[in-house]
Write a structure and sequence with these properties.
The protein has 184 residues and is of the alpha+beta class. 28% of the residues lie in helices and 21% in strands. The protein is globular and about 60 Å long.
Length: 184
């Protein structure tokens, strides 16, 4: 994606814009398909969206607002202030059938210099950044041991200053590191 900067304001927007008139319901649009299309546009770096209240009496604006809010939550950076979504990793689900049937689709993003994770009260308890070097360097492997029904079980983990990274998050990080090392 290429970007242009408005000289007077300093705003940087994508050269390709996305018109949301069709998402307002005029063309028999489907909200799930519209949300997936918006997610893909954001993933590809689109930051210029054309919407108005008359596009479905606010429907397209609600869809765009949800897509931007979810993207910033999933990525943990403000995509409207210089952060960029680089891509999406495969969706990960719990391996245990005893856990809720959730699906996590991790995004890979480039954070702007000096960025800090953003937390929404009540949605995220804690967030932190770790560099790829920290995650893939020496001593990056650990094990989490838990006793479950009188049996000690072990899971792979990554050590961090805030406690071990394990479970679904460990699987996401492992998949990302694998891809990053292939790209080197």
């Amino acid at each position: 994606m290429r970007y242009r900067t408005f000289p007077r304001t300093g705003w940087t927007i994508s050269e390709i814009g996305y018109g949301l008139w069709g998402m307002g319901g005029w063309t028999g649009s489907n909200d799930d398909e519209s949300a997936a299309a918006l997610d893909r546009a954001i993933e590809l770096g689109c930051t210029f969206f054309d919407t108005a209240w008359v596009y479905g009496l606010g429907r397209s604006e609600r869809l765009l607002g949800a897509a931007l809010r979810e993207t910033s939550e999933e990525v943990g950076i403000d995509v409207m202030q210089g952060g960029r979504v680089l891509g999406r990793l495969p969706t990960v689900r719990p391996m245990s059938t005893r856990l809720p049937p959730i699906a996590v689709t991790p995004y890979v993003a480039l954070a702007p210099p000096g960025a800090a994770p953003r937390l929404r009260a009540g949605e995220v308890e804690a967030a932190f950044w770790m560099s790829l070097e920290q995650l893939s360097g020496a001593g990056a492997c650990a094990v989490v041991r838990r006793e479950i029904r009188d049996e000690v079980r072990e899971w792979p983990a990554y050590p961090s200053p805030w406690g071990p990274i394990w479970g679904i998050t460990e699987r996401i990080v492992s998949g990302f590191i694998e891809l990053a090392e292939l790209a080197r």
